[in-house]
């Protein structure tokens, strides 16, 4: 056979399997169609060595996922000596992380904080000790149990169907009363894992900090060939199914039942706590004695999955069974230069079916006096399905949307999505513009990469993937629309319908991701072009909102339902987040829709924080009230600006009596581009404003009563300043908070206007939806009567209770969402996005390099700028602190250190830094000129007296390292290690420092931040000799 002939080379490996590799008698004597296999059609680019090693790693053990994604981040984790991390796995909520090393040590990290960090959770129980582990203890399979009730509320999102010009999809939820398996305590979780030596371990959560374990053995081992290589779990009702694969290529299926053995007890926090001591019960289901692809027996298993049947509400057209999916990937080098390496993957499948067992008909011919007929139990069997062969190297298997779609991620950066019913690759249906079932069906796909990746991870719906290439670089790759987003108007081909289908698909996928607690839906908009047409933008927002929430019109609800919807319906917040994210251009000023979304989201944050913290049953402490003052002040500014806008429009009515209210209102909205009027006219933000005013009233009462208990003078001063805001307010807060106040009256006249216009509930909801998510100067005609009543009858009643002068001249710049071009360095002021407090502009040692860089062109020695940048992180913090206040004392301390021995923090500095310091000591005049240049520049920009320096010390020393510019971060990377070691050495020697002083140190000024550090540079250079 000619080795250059690819078809012959492939067909040479396709042989009818022998009887020894058959799975059952059905395979040996069954239908001939079961033996039909597919040959690889086209081979991809040759696999690099890194991919070959990755395939070999996947063949050795099943748990080798090197990357996973969660909204939570964690601290750096260090493996135990003699091992390395091989597997990471998050819970579905992303709040717990299991980390596995090469010898089976499992570390658990849980409990994200405000800084996005996770804490280590120790485990206790009957598991084996951490020491003395070997390769037999390596983990081959892991599974997190679903968490009750969050994971059981994820719906199945049906196809999006276009009816009468509107796209809609149905949501189907699981039966919450059906048997299920989860941790018996709400909000807690557990996971199971299997090791090579067939040890099954359950790790369950006791409380927020400790975990327990329970273990049992699946099978006793007699030879090393019986050790496991892969394992996979799935949940079936109130038990688990476990499939294992060993080195003999035997596959077994087990059933696992967990008896939690819960008892009521007490702990240090509360009484009536449920204590659990679980035990594991193992049942044998079925086994196969040899597992291999039908056309390439030598290929080894690389991944294993067991997938539940398609749920009933998915309306499958064919019977669905629990399916075991195994991939056998091969990526190898050619034996010589004349051959081409074969890289392909075989996908093998088995259905777990139940077969009724009946006795042979001959038993019915026995005598009548024989025993009664025996009913035999059903028997589980694995029925093999035809193999699927692809020329790609499959690295991941990911079921999606309740296991109705299976995604196979390949090393070339592509994803093959296969339909669960037919197992065919889902392809776009060109011309079908009325139904959307998935991203690939709508035309989204991943283009093949020119180079292979060794690790691939997709998000929940495979809209984008994270790849780790051969060069060890992470890359994010979103799917792309096959047809492109450019409109074609050639009179022959019209793809506008396909664009509409793609928009509907993105809206459907947004709904799917929103119902997954750990899935972020905003990244999905990377599939869209940045210049999305306004009409497409409007359709996207409306489709998202209709699918997620029905709470468009709160004005028609009673007070209790309004409050429940404000606190409990978070889906409308997701819709507003989508509206805020879809800003047309990075440098453009956000439109009214984005401005409205920004204000409503911030008001929602303020309402939730104030309402949940300012409880009347357990009043908060002064420190908590102090942390909320920024949100309270921002809310007062919002109310003031909204009232100022209302009375501005009222003055227009008075000045132009012949102009209709609707015309004047539209003219003002168009000229000001302000969303403040929509806050009052839309039912959801109007209701939110009234309850926010009620929460503010409670907040200020608590602040006034807690002043005497303030723990510090700073907190008391800030709280007094906060109270002064309410005293100087140009209106009474009760006007807005009362049910019969201004907002309450507007709510009633809007409801009356809808009633007079005789529009139905659906049209009323559409009108509210339009004003909230597609705000425009022209308001719905059904509100013309309400607009006239508001500005001619209601507002004049409150004119005497307002200070109109303070309202008109109030600065509302802080309420408007700035464009990205005006943020950052060009912003007039910096405000913390969460607390709404301005960030103080103070000089710090970490910003010294930025100041020095501005004068680097004037310096005769440009090296001094980078020297200072490195010393910011290389010098101990004690030296940096004392350089600001007592440079003469610093001289004596450093001198005493060098008399004993060269300090470790100095020897840890880079060699070029040490050389520069020594040369500066040999040339005092040159060094003085360089430092004088910095001093002259700083004297012209940031001269401070010693009092201001002392007052700002605490802010300087506590400044966040995130404020360092990218140049400072790269320059100080080499000194990060020496800082930690040097701090300890400096603190240890400073206690016994001599009181002698140096003339050079005594002459250094302390009025400047930069000169304090420059003086330290000079002292180190002189004393290093």
From TrEMBL:
Read off the PANTHER family from this record: MEDIATOR OF RNA POLYMERASE II TRANSCRIPTION SUBUNIT 16, THYROID HORMONE RECEPTOR-ASSOCIATED PROTEIN-RELATED
| Tagged with keyword Secreted | no
User: Key word Transcription regulation present in the record?
Assistant: yes
One term under GO cellular component: mediator complex
Q: What is this protein called?
A: Mediator of RNA polymerase II transcription subunit 16
- Keywords for this protein: Activator, Nucleus, Transcription, Transcription regulation
Question: What function does the entry list?
Answer: Component of the Mediator complex, a coactivator involved in the regulated transcription of nearly all RNA polymerase II-dependent genes. Mediator functions as a bridge to convey information from gene-specific regulatory proteins to the basal RNA polymerase II transcription machinery. Mediator is recruited to promoters by direct interactions with regulatory proteins and serves as a scaffold for the assembly of a functional preinitiation complex with RNA polymerase II and the general transcription factors.
Q: Which Pfam families match?
A: Med16_N
Write the gene name. Answer: MED16
């Amino acid at each position: 056979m000619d080795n250059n002939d690819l078809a012959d080379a492939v067909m040479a490996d396709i042989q009818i399997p022998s009887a020894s590799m058959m799975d059952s008698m059905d395979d040996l004597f069954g239908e001939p169609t079961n033996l039909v296999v597919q040959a690889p059609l086209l081979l991809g680019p040759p696999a690099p060595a890194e991919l070959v090693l990755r395939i070999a790693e996947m063949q050795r053990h099943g748990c080798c996922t090197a990357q996973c994604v969660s909204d939570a981040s964690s601290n750096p984790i260090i493996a135990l000596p003699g091992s390395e991390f091989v597997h990471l796995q998050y819970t579905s909520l992303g709040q717990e992380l299991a980390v596995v090393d090469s010898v089976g040590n499992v570390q658990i990290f849980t409990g994200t904080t405000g800084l996005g960090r996770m804490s280590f959770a120790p485990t206790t129980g009957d598991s084996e000790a951490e020491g003395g582990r070997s390769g037999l203890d390596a983990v081959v399979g892991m599974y997190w149990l679903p968490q009750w009730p969050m994971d059981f509320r994820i719906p199945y999102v049906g196809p999006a169907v276009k009816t009468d010009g509107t796209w809609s999809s149905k949501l189907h939820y699981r039966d919450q009363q059906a048997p299920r398996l989860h941790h018996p305590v709400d909000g807690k979780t557990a996971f199971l894992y299997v090791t090579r030596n067939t040890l099954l371990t359950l790790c369950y959560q006791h409380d927020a900090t400790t975990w327990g374990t329970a273990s049992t053995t699946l099978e006793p081992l007699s030879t090393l060939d019986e050790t496991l290589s892969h394992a996979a779990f799935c949940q079936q009702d109130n038990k688990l199914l476990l499939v294992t694969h060993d080195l003999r290529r035997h596959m077994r299926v087990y059933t696992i039942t967990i008896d939690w053995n819960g008892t009521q007890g007490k702990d240090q926090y509360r009484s009536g706590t449920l204590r659990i001591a679980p035990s594991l019960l193992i049942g044998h289901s079925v086994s196969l004695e040899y597992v291999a692809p039908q056309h390439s027996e030598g290929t080894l298993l690389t991944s294993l999955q067991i997938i539940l049947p398609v749920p009933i509400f998915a309306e499958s057209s064919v019977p669905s069974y629990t399916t075991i999916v195994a991939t056998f990937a091969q990526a190898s080098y050619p034996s010589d230069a004349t051959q081409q390496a074969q890289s392909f993957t075989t996908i093998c499948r088995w259905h777990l079916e139940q077969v009724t067992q009946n006795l042979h008909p001959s038993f019915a011919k026995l005598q009548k006096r024989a025993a009664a007929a025996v009913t035999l139990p059903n028997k589980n069997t694995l029925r093999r399905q035809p193999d699927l062969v692809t020329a790609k190297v499959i690295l991941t298997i990911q079921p999606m949307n309740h296991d109705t779609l299976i995604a196979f991620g390949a090393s070339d950066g592509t994803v093959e999505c296969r339909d669960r019913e037919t197992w065919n690759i889902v392809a776009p249906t060109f011309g079908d513009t009325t139904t959307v079932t998935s991203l690939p069906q709508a035309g989204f796909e991943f283009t093949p990469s020119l180079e292979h990746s060794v690790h691939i991870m997709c998000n929940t719906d495979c809209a984008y993937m994270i790849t780790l290439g051969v060069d060890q670089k992470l890359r994010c790759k979103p799917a792309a629309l096959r047809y492109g987003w450019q409109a074609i108007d050639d009179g022959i081909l019209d793809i506008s319908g396909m664009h509409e289908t793609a928009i509907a698909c993105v809206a459907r996928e947004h709904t799917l991701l929103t119902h997954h607690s750990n899935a972020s839906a905003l990244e999905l908009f990377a599939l869209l072009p940045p210049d999305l047409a306004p009409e497409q933008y409007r359709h996207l927002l409306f489709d998202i909102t209709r699918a997620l929430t029905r709470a468009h019109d709160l004005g028609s609800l009673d007070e209790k339902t309004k409050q429940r919807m404000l606190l409990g319906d978070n889906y409308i917040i997701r819709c507003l987040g989508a509206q805020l994210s879809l800003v047309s251009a990075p440098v453009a000023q956000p439109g009214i829709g984005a401005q409205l979304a920004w204000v409503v989201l911030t008001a929602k944050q303020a309402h939730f924080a104030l309402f949940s913290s300012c409880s009347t049953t357990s009043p908060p402490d002064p420190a908590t009230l102090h942390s909320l003052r920024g949100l309270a002040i921002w809310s007062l500014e919002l109310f003031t600006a909204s009232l100022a806008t209302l009375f501005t429009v009222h003055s227009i009515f008075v000045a132009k009596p012949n102009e209709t209210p609707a015309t004047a209102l539209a003219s003002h909205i168009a000229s000001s581009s302000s969303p403040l009027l929509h806050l009052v006219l839309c039912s959801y933000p109007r209701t939110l404003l009234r309850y926010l005013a009620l929460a503010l009233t409670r907040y200020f009462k608590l602040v006034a009563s807690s002043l005497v208990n303030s723990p510090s003078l700073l907190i008391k001063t800030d709280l007094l300043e906060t109270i002064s805001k309410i005293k100087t307010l140009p209106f009474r807060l009760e006007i807005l908070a009362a049910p019969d106040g201004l907002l309450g009256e507007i709510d009633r006249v809007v409801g009356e206007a809808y009633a007079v216009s005789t529009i139905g509930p659906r049209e009323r909801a559409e009108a509210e939806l339009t004003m909230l998510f597609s705000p425009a100067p022209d308001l719905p005609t059904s509100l013309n009567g309400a607009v006239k009543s508001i500005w001619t009858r209601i507002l004049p009643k409150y004119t005497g209770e307002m200070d109109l002068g303070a309202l008109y001249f109030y600065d509302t710049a802080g309420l408007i969402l700035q464009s990205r071009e005006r943020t950052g360095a060009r912003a007039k002021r910096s405000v913390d996005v969460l607390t709404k407090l301005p960030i103080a502009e103070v000089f710090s040692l970490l910003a010294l390099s930025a100041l020095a860089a501005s004068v680097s062109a004037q310096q005769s020695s440009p090296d001094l700028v980078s020297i200072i940048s490195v010393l910011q992180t290389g010098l101990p913090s004690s030296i940096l602190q004392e350089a600001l206040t007592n440079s003469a004392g610093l001289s004596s301390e450093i001198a005493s250190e060098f008399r004993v021995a060269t300090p470790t923090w100095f020897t840890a500095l880079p060699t070029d830094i040490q050389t520069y310091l020594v040369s500066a000591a040999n040339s005092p005049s040159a060094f003085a000129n360089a430092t004088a240049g910095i001093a002259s520049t700083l004297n012209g920009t940031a001269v401070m007296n010693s009092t201001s320096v002392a007052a700002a010390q605490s802010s300087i020393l506590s400044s966040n390292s995130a404020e360092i510019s990218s140049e400072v971060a790269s320059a100080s990377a080499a000194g990060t290690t020496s800082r930690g070691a040097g701090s300890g050495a400096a603190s240890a020697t400073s206690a016994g420092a001599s009181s002698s002083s140096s003339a050079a140190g005594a002459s250094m000024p302390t009025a400047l931040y930069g000169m304090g550090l420059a003086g330290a540079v000079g002292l180190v250079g002189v004393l290093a000799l």
